[in-house]
Write a structure and sequence with these properties.
Elements (H helix, E strand, L loop, with lengths): L9 H5 L13 E7 L5 E6 L2 E13 L9 E7 L14 E8 L5 E10 L4 H10 L4 E4 L3 E6 L4 E8 L2 E7 L8 H12 L1 H23 L8 H7 L1 E7 L4 E7 L9 E6 L3 E6 L3
Parallel strand pairs: 4-6, 10-11
Antiparallel strand pairs: 1-3, 1-5, 2-3, 3-4, 5-6, 7-8, 8-9, 9-10, 11-12, 12-13, 13-14
Length: about 270
């Protein structure tokens, strides 16, 4: 267990959070269920690292339960191994500096690990259950709790690929499904546009990357570029992610756009 630093004043503790967020000076105790979403960490200053996790359900001790997420920022020693300290679904009590909006908190002390609480325990069990949206075209879509989006598999241009529906907030994907329906209704035409756009945007760069000096033509470029997944985003936006076939030494080829504007961007992330 990586112990949080007991900083001496509210001012020092609030400096752990570099966001534009207002904090009072009083510490409170909170207890909650560790979220299924991913945890993170980054260097705070020369004295500590910030461990980031969240509660999916929580309460200030003695007050009613809340179901809005609470982001927890926990200062730990720079060389600490902290990712296994609080597994998803476990219940803990922390002393924290709670933001005025009560959406963020900086941890001052771990008061008690693995507490017993019937109400929080029931929510923890609930959060372990799969959440599935059943659709006719896209099959069963399962909530990925770590990423807060729904995902499944679908046929595109006679190939099975992964598909994800990524809402901006909450779990309502109704509008995203509408975007996908329009996109898949004209899949053959979109595929032609994607291929032409990828060649126009990335073929010249691809040849610059070739170490043997041999230039590839558009057919070879498209043969090596293989669609792996489709991401459906808010406001009619989408992303097509391709394996690069080592054209860019393992970088993905991402083609993105929207129903309104068509294809607008290409990138080689990773």
């Amino acid at each position: 267990m990586s112990k949080a630093f007991k900083l001496l004043s509210g001012n020092k503790l609030s400096s752990v959070d570099v966001s534009d967020c207002e904090y009072p000076s009083e510490l409170v105790q909170v207890e909650g269920v560790v979220s299924q979403s991913g945890q993170g960490g980054w260097r705070g200053n020369e004295n500590y690292t910030v461990h980031s996790l969240s509660f999916d359900a929580w309460r200030v001790v003695g007050e009613p339960l809340r179901r809005n997420p609470l982001l927890l920022l926990r200062p730990v020693p720079i060389d600490a191994e902290y990712f296994g300290d609080f597994p998803a679904g476990t219940l803990h009590k922390f002393e924290v500096l709670l933001s005025v909006e009560q959406t963020r908190a900086v941890v001052s002390e771990v008061v008690q690990e693995n507490i017993e609480d019937n109400e929080l325990g029931e929510i923890a069990r609930e959060l372990q259950q799969p959440v599935i949206v059943r659709t006719e075209r896209f099959g069963d879509l399962t909530l990925n709790r770590q990423l807060d989006w729904f995902e499944g598999h679908v046929d595109w241009d006679d190939d099975e690929v992964e598909i994800s529906f990524q809402p901006e907030e909450g779990l309502d994907i109704t509008n995203l499904l509408e975007t996908a329906e329009v996109l898949f209704r004209d899949a053959a035409e979109w595929q032609k546009k994607i291929e032409a756009f990828a060649v126009a945007e990335k073929l010249e760069l691809a040849n610059d990357w070739q170490e043997d000096g041999n230039e590839m033509d558009a057919c070879e470029f498209l043969r090596r570029m293989t669609l792996e997944s489709i991401s459906i985003l808010p406001e009619g936006k989408f992303e097509f992610w391709h394996d690069d076939g080592d054209i860019f030494f393992g970088h993905s080829i991402q083609i993105s756009g929207s129903l309104r504007e068509g294809l607008t961007d290409s990138d080689i992330p990773g």
